[in-house]
């Protein structure tokens, strides 16, 4: 019996040690994640404000951290086996001992187009929301450029002036990432390096046509 007790005691000690070490690793990872998040949030927020002002030709915008309550699943207790109801005292104790709601950090967009007061993203018009979303996308790309970025008619709702400003930004960021853009916008096509088009030949089959800006066709 003593030998069995010693074995179980050692296993219990090992388990407690492993739990302690695991908690330390989790805390260390959380600290690193929080530091990386704070640094990235600051830089992306700066870039977001810059691109917002370029696209709107003025105004101001920022990202704001907010606390969001985490929804917890509530356990629904039924009647007892014999149809007996729970006593009121038991219910009161359960509510008193209930854990406090947890919160997580969320991000809210505050945007103020030129000539307007500060507004939340949900209160902006469709075109303003599109430009604001594009500004945030450009900020993220500028902070951490991916190998390539695919955009599908992202400027479809923009007028010619805004399309021209956006195309200029694409040109500036194209040195850091490759843009593949599906578009019918002339301003975007004017700033492209290579254009690909789909056309239908006399035989009714689709054909791929590619052309560089200098007018030379590319096979």
Detail the topology: elements first, then pairings.
Layout: H1 2-56, E1 60-69, H2 88-96, E2 103-112, E3 119-120, H3 126-143, E4 148-152, H4 160-173, E5 178-182, H5 186-190, E6 194-200, E7 206-212, E8 217-218
Parallel strand pairs: 4-5
Antiparallel strand pairs: 1-2, 2-3, 6-7, 7-8
Helix pairs in contact: 1-3
Please tell me about this protein's structure:
The protein is built from five helices and eight strands, in the order αβαββαβαβαβββ. It has helices spanning 2-56, 88-96, 126-143, 160-173, 186-190; strands at 60-69, 103-112, 119-120, 148-152, 178-182, 194-200, 206-212, 217-218. A hairpin with a 6-residue loop joins strand 2 (103-112) and strand 3. The protein has 219 residues and is α+β, with helices and mostly antiparallel strands.
Order of helices and strands: HEHEEHEHEHEEE
List the quaternary state of the chains: single chain
Describe the main β-sheet briefly.
3 strands, antiparallel
Tell me the count of domains: 2
Strand order of the largest sheet: 1-2-3
Under CATH, the homologous superfamily of the largest domain reads: P-loop containing nucleotide triphosphate hydrolases
Assign the CATH architecture of the largest domain. 3-Layer(aba) Sandwich
């Amino acid at each position: 019996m003593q030998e069995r007790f010693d074995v179980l005691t050692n296993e219990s000690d090992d388990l407690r040690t492993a739990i302690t070490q695991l908690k330390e690793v989790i805390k260390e990872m959380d600290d690193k994640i929080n530091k990386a998040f704070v640094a990235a949030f600051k830089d992306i927020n700066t870039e977001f404000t810059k691109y917002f002002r370029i696209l709107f030709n003025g105004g101001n915008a920022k990202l704001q951290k907010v606390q969001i309550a985490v929804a917890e699943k509530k356990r629904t207790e039924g009647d007892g086996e014999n149809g007996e109801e729970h006593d009121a005292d038991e219910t009161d104790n359960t509510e008193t001992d209930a854990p406090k709601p947890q919160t997580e950090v969320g991000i809210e967009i505050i945007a103020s187009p030129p000539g307007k007061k500060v507004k939340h993203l949900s209160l902006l018009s469709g075109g303003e929301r599109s430009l604001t979303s594009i500004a945030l996308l450009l900020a993220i790309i500028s902070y951490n450029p991916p190998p390539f970025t695919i955009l599908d008619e992202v400027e479809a709702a923009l007028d010619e002036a805004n399309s021209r400003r956006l195309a200029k930004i694409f040109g500036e960021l194209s040195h850091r990432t490759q843009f593949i853009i599906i578009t019918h916008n002339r301003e975007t096509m004017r700033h492209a390096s290579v254009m690909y088009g789909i056309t239908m030949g006399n035989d009714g089959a689709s054909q791929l046509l590619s052309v560089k800006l200098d007018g030379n066709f590319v096979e």
